Predict the 3D structure of the following.
Amino acid sequence: MASAEQGQRVLLQGNEAVVHGAIAAGCRFFAGYPITPASEISELLSVMLPKVGGTFIQMEDEIASMGAIIGASLAGVKSMTATSGPGFSLMQENLGYACITEVPCVVVNVMRGGPSTGLPTNVSQGDVLMARWGTHGDHPIIVLAVSSVSDCFSITVRAFNLSEKYRVPVILLSDEVVAHTRESVVLPSQDKVRVVDRIAPSVPPQWYKPYADNNRGVPDMAAFGEGYRHHVTGLVHDERGFPTQQPKEIESFLMRLHDKITKGFSEIMITKNHLMEDAEVCVIAYGCVSRAALMAIKMARQHGIKAGLLQLVTLFPFPRKAVDAALRQCKAAIVPELNLGQMAREINRVNQTGTRIIKHNRIDGQMITPNEILKQILGVS
Amino acid sequence: MVVETEVIRREYLRHDKKFPHVWCPGCGNGIVLGSLLRAIHGLGLPKDDVVVVSGIGCSSRMTTYIDFNTLHTTHGRALTFATGVKLAKPRLKVIAVMGDGDATAIGGNHFIHAARRNISITAIIVNNSTYGMTGGQYSPTTPYGSRSTTSVYGHVEHDFSIAELAVTAGASFVARGTVYHAAQLDKLLEEAMSKRGFSVVEVISNCHVQHGRRNKLGDAVTMITGFRDRAVPVAKAAKMTAEEMQGKFSIGVLCDVDKPVSTEEYERIRSEACQLKS
Ligand SMILES: Cc1ncc(C[n+]2csc(CCOP(=O)(O)OP(=O)(O)O)c2C)c(N)n1
Ligand code: SF4
């Protein structure tokens, strides 16, 4: 079992880095159910959490795990679960519950091939749209994708911070390749890690309205047991938390859920540009595929082609501004994905400039290689 | 008694909530609610330290009306949320209120595992032999042969005995009461809430609107007094034959054992691990 001292160079696999990121971000509760390729996250947290005064529990299934992390978060403790496709399917109902009750939590989905039990030990990016739309109803959610071991640390911290700040569940999409790749990384020491905590109410308990709007659109959040007795329900509720059927209250509540995320767009949208300054052809990729894409654009540059990479870290809300800029700049965009084009669909949706968008997909459980992407780049140049 | 009720009403109901409640007149849920509040009052638990979690169903609406930290969750999952709350803040008194369908159909797996785990939570299961809220379909406790909206020809499956299931699954304390025996129910709930480990109180209740009407069991009063006639104290029931127990059920404490409690065990592990580190 790897034990990483912060501030030191260590060899870690992605799943282990997620654990270190979570602990650094202040996660003190984890509930999960074993599934490949996410199991190492549970295993390492079962060792580390009690050492920092936290709690680990292996629940009877993923539905229970999701319920438990919501309960723990309501009791004031930063919480997380980790799973893969089939488990993520089971979490959807309670994920929706976390959306409507605005309970911060982080759900890691280490993607593997699907549908169903699919390809347990093979890589995939097949759950992208499910992460956005898997639970019923209109709801906002934040979906982030990691591509490296160092991402696994820093983006996990980001996931917690965004979750706490906006009171929204955050889905961290990892994949089998990122999860099991070992890389040498330097983890920042704790004092270098920016940690955001939810804002607790400062008014006297009798004045507290648990779902009242404010200038952030994010109500202050009281933990159970701190004197602010309130009601939490998955039913659409008024600002006091009680069920409502008033059309006016319903709409203003649901709109606030969306608006709070809109207000935070600039902070939530994380993308990375690689050699994009003068790019004429770009690759838009995320997760493990962006690693192959980075190599491919470098190879293309050796062929004299001005290729660049737009790496999406935030997948949802969709980083339209960054994608739009890349599409305006380039004559063609190649979108390699380990699915049949789930993000390509989003990219096409925002394509205002008629830029050629070329999908490149694999669903055979194998990685997309740099050479495959290079071939596509050469094809459009 | 009158003063007592007034105190309970003033102290524990949410007056800023838009009453009325959703229950049908005469529903046993109100009696269970009264018992729950009297038990909490009797134990002198500070309101801020009590968390009441419920699932989905008529009985689960209880959390809306009472002035504690309340959590109305998803159907069948109350115990999973309760587990998270309890583990995250063990000093809180966590009570889960569920219907029979909620606790033993969709939530059956969570129920047996909470019992096996022996986590310090009190589960109150309001058993009205049907799915009240969705309109009287058969539930895991609907008796063989009875009619429901999904068994109009008579039910062909057999029912669970919730309390016995809890005993077998490993709960520390298991009791059964009825909404007729309200005074006894207060006591059973007090005992359950004072117990270390997972405690279960199954409350036989009336849904005269959905279950009673379809099976010609009479109005609320008839159904509730029917529980008086069919209930047999546990000790007496133990001496009766299966035949004598036909159509009857036992009430009282079925099981009260002491064994390691996972919530407390984990606290020990945590403090040991913390020391190990420093
Ligand atoms: C996942 C899911 N399935 C089904 C329902 C619909 N539903 C709401 S309440 C209920 C039954 C409640 O019955 P029970 O738990 O016995 O409680 P009662 O209403 O009788 O008190 C069902 C099936 C739901 N809300 N969620
Ligand atoms: S439907 Fe049945 S359980 Fe529900 S409130 Fe009415 S009587 Fe009670």
Remarks:
- The two ends of chain B are 56 Å apart (CA to CA).
- Chain B has a mean pLDDT of 96.
- The pocket of thiamine diphosphate (ligand 1) is lined by residues B 56-59, 75, 99-102, 126, 128, 130-134, 139, 207 (CB under 6 Å).
